[in-house]
Design brief:
The protein is mainly α. The two termini are 22 Å apart. The protein is elongated. The protein has one domain.
Length: 66
């Protein structure tokens, strides 16, 4: 499950840089910026829901000192 979370975080960061590169180019392509923003928001909401579901169903357990 940790791999899924790390993968989603990496995707969010990649989409952020994808939108930034589109913003910094001379010709502004608003369609690309809107698409990257929509994708980033969707990934962020999906990650948040996954974390909430994991907390409710007990997929993550608190660290117990050994």
């Amino acid at each position: 499950m940790k791999i899924v979370i790390v993968f989603l975080l990496a995707c969010i960061v990649l989409v952020l840089f994808w939108g930034l590169s589109g913003l910094l180019k001379q010709e502004s392509d608003s369609q690309r910026l809107i698409r990257s923003l929509t994708l980033r928001v969707g990934l962020s909401i999906g990650l948040f829901i996954l974390l909430l579901l994991g907390a409710v169903f007990g997929w993550w357990r608190p660290h117990q000192p050994g």
